Write the structure tokens for this entry.
Amino acid sequence: MLDILAPEAATGWDSQLRLRYALRQGRTSDWHMHRGALRVLAALYPEGEAVCHHVLVHPPAGMAGGDSLRVDLELQSGAHALLTTPGATRFYRSLGATASQTLHARVAEGARLEWLPLESLAYEDCIAENRAVFELAPGAEMMAWDMLALGRPASGDAFARGSFTQHLEIPGLWLERGRIDGGDVVLREAPGGLDGQAALGTLLLAAGTPLGAARREALLETARALVAELPEGLRAGVTSPQPGVLVLRAMAARIEPVACLLRGAWAGWRSQAWGLAACAPRVWST
């Protein structure tokens, strides 16, 4: 459990946010508590009262060494929440301390979570860790994505120094953890590594109860149809490592085509899995 009253980190700014969602009389209502700069805007209901949309706002818009952002998120039975951010999360140069962003989400039976933040930008010389853990009760379902851009390709700045660690976990179902070292030329440039690509993306659809074979295959086919028509320079693949998890991965030289693919797959899966039309947060277009 996140301790909102924990003292601030000695080496940087510490921000913490606790969120709770509950379904009451057909409306997903929210409760939240924050400490530090991280907070939420007002609850929005662009697709009716059953689905609560929240935009998480961090006014500094970036993290330096020693800074930390922590989000503790709980959805009670039947609740449905979609969370996003108004812009990219920037990880700036560090003098030695790690900048960390941590999410711990618990999703109860019959609840649905959509965790859809905009991309992380790893600047050269950053030392960063992005950690997300999703606990799914039987009958719970979620979609989440993670997008990462290394360096600043538009400015010609490669990610030749620094490190970025990514941890994605659904306890008991799936775990992925990797570290990108900017100084590892083989990792960055070799065909068996990133092959010179600077933008990465992962989209998850996961359930606390195994998905039926027919439903799982239909969802895979929806994503495969998108992958079959990729524009030049964008690479992607979709798989189901086990019956409760679907994973779509993509990479490209820039983040924009990766984000476009993941949004398209999210929209298709949302319609097919939950019978809900895509309702893109307005901040994605601003």
